[in-house]
Every structure is written in C-alpha cells, then in structure tokens.
Amino acid sequence: EELAAREAEEKKAQELIARQQEEVQKKQEQVVKRKTKKEREAEEAAAKALALLVRVLGLEAGAFWEVRGARMVSLAAHGVEEPALRKVLEEGLPYGVGLAWQVYETRSPLFTARYAEEDRVVPALKALDWRTFAALPVPTPGAPRARRIFVVGQRAERLWRRSEVDLLLLACRTLGLGLERLTEKARHEAVN
Length: 192
Hints:
- Helices cover about 55% and strands about 20% of the residues.
- The chain has a six-stranded antiparallel beta sheet, with helices on both faces.
- A hairpin with a 2-residue loop joins strand 1 (about 60-70) and strand 2.
- The chain contains five helices and six strands.
- About 25% of the residues are buried.
- By secondary structure, the chain is α+β, with helices and mostly antiparallel strands.
- The radius of gyration is 24 Å and the shape is elongated.
- It has helices at about 1-55, 85-90, 100-105, 125, 160-190, and strands spanning about 60-70, 70-80, 95, 110, 130-140, 150-155.
C-alpha cells in the first residue's frame, strides 16, 4: 500500500514536470514567433522605404543592409536583377568589402558618381561598371553606431543634387526612428 502511494506520487511528479516542460517550450516558441514577426516587420518597412526612394529618385536599385558580426546581411532589396548581385544579397558582405562597410566604420554617408573607381567596392558592382552610388547609415536612437546601412544607385553616372542628398538623409533618420518604434512595440508585446 505504501509502495503504491509512492509510485502514484512519483507518477504525479513526472506528469507535473512534463507539463512544466511543455509550458516552457510553448513560451520559447512564442518568443521565437515574436522575434520572427519583429524581423519580418522591420524587413517589410525597409523594403517599402527602399522601393519608394528608388522610384522617387529615378534610380535603378537599392539594398538595405544590417551588420551581424563580421558580415552584412541584406534585409531588403529593390530592382536587383543581375544574378551576380542577387548572389551578393544572398551571401552578404564580408567585413571590409564594399563602401557600405566604410559608411559603417566612419558613421558618415557616402555619395559618389564614380563607384567603380573607389577603393573599397563590391567586385560584382565594379564588374557591371556601376557608377552612381549612395550609402547612408540608418541611425538607431541612443546607439553609438548605426548597424543598418541604406544603399541606392544605378549604372549610369549622375551627380547627386543637394535635394536628393537631403531627402536620403531625412529618409534614413525617419526609417531609423520607425524601426526603433517597431522594436519597442515588439518588446512591449513580449512583456504583456
């Protein structure tokens, strides 16, 4: 009788542990889903901003990069059709390759009408004789360095007008604030 009572208690304890483990696993899955949703929302916002600015400025293409360790990964792209450039987007930019890394390091935007002649270029862009190029940091409020870089350009050489530079600078600041708002919203939803 005493043995049966102990076995019943052990069985109940095992069931309780199993339920607790299931609850922990469900909570972990919810956190992953929220993170995925947050990332998806950020990528959608970046893609919309990129598409709008490329069209408004009459440019050919653009990409929105995020620094993750020693590599930049593409969060969004617009107008990128060439297989070599699609491959760059899929693989990301290794540390130091491309002017986007220079913008990250210097924290300053870069505008050029002679991309192929610059020192730190993406070989695929140089091979296509890409000329007009702009890379801008997307600031995050309170962060010492922007982790995201906004890049637009075209093959044909074209000088940047002051109004275009101002528009891109303002758009990047606005996008940075919007992405920070999405991050705060996701944090708030995770707590509640």
